[in-house]
């Protein structure tokens, strides 16, 4: 993942979607915007559903030379021909996952708002660390990844950082100088025009 001055876009799928419609929506966004990576983040644990979704999305991303990773399902990465995995349990399984998938796979770790977890994940071989959500959503334990965390990380740590979860235009503007990637998901998929919604968020980059 390249180091550039402005943040890059890391797209996250909705937790559920219509297989007959979503790949087309994704293709439209990828054709309109430069995207570094797409993450398949389905809520289901049904292997058949996940596999069919991965196959459909891989056709879209592969044709556009965009990496495709999956939430947590390490065993499916090689089986489905994906580029890597996004681990949602912080640093706990990074080292084991890196060993299982090898040096070329993308391994990322979501670390909530814990700089300690993030540093541990980076030391264990994570390609990037994700922090979030960026504002209180009324879910989980209410922990929020604050601007100060991203500012500190950008100054002190080499491992690329992703800001994801409950993004708004204001937050994107505030955080953009301090993050390498924005993990964008339902912020655009919940809108009728995902292409325009992403353009509106990117317009806030400072």
UniProtKB/TrEMBL annotation:
Q: Where are the transmembrane segments?
A: none
Task: Write down the superkingdom of origin.
Answer: Bacteria
In its UniProt record, a GO molecular function of this protein is:
thiamine-phosphate diphosphorylase activity
Thiamine phosphate synthase/TenI domain span: 9-175
Q: Which SUPFAM superfamilies match?
A: Thiamin phosphate synthase
**Its pathway?**
Cofactor biosynthesis; thiamine diphosphate biosynthesis
**Keyword flag Lyase:** no
| BP GO terms, sorted | thiamine biosynthetic process
The UniProt entry, under Pfam families, shows: TMP-TENI
**A Gene Ontology cellular-component term:** cytoplasm
Name the InterPro entries for this protein. Answer: Aldolase_TIM, ThiamineP_synth_sf, ThiamineP_synth_TenI
Q: What keywords were assigned to this record?
A: Thiamine biosynthesis
PANTHER family per the record? Answer: THIAMINE-PHOSPHATE PYROPHOSPHORYLASE, THIAMINE-PHOSPHATE SYNTHASE
The name under which this protein is listed is Thiamine-phosphate pyrophosphorylase
Q: Please report the organism this UniProt entry assigns to the protein.
A: Thalassovita autumnalis
């Amino acid at each position: 993942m390249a180091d550039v001055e402005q943040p890059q876009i890391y797209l996250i799928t909705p937790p559920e979607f219509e297989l007959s419609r979503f790949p087309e929506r994704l293709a439209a966004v990828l054709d309109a915007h430069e995207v570094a990576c797409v993450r398949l983040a389905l809520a289901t644990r049904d292997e058949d559903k996940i596999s069919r979704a991965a196959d459909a999305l891989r056709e879209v991303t592969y044709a556009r030379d965009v990496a495709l990773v999956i939430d947590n399902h390490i065993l499916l990465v090689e089986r489905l021909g994906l580029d890597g995995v996004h681990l949602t349990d912080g640093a706990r399984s990074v080292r084991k996952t890196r060993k299982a998938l090898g040096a070329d796979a993308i391994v990322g770790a979501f670390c909530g708002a814990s700089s300690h977890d993030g540093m541990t994940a980076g030391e264990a071989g994570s390609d990037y660390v994700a922090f979030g959500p960026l504002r209180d959503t009324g879910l989980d334990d209410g922990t929020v990844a604050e601007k100060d965390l991203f500012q500190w990380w950008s100054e002190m740590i080499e491992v690329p950082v992703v800001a994801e979860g409950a993004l708004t235009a204001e937050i994107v503007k505030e955080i953009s100088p301090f993050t390498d990637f924005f993990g964008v998901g339902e912020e655009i998929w919940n809108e009728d025009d995902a292409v325009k919604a992403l353009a509106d968020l990117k317009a806030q980059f400072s």
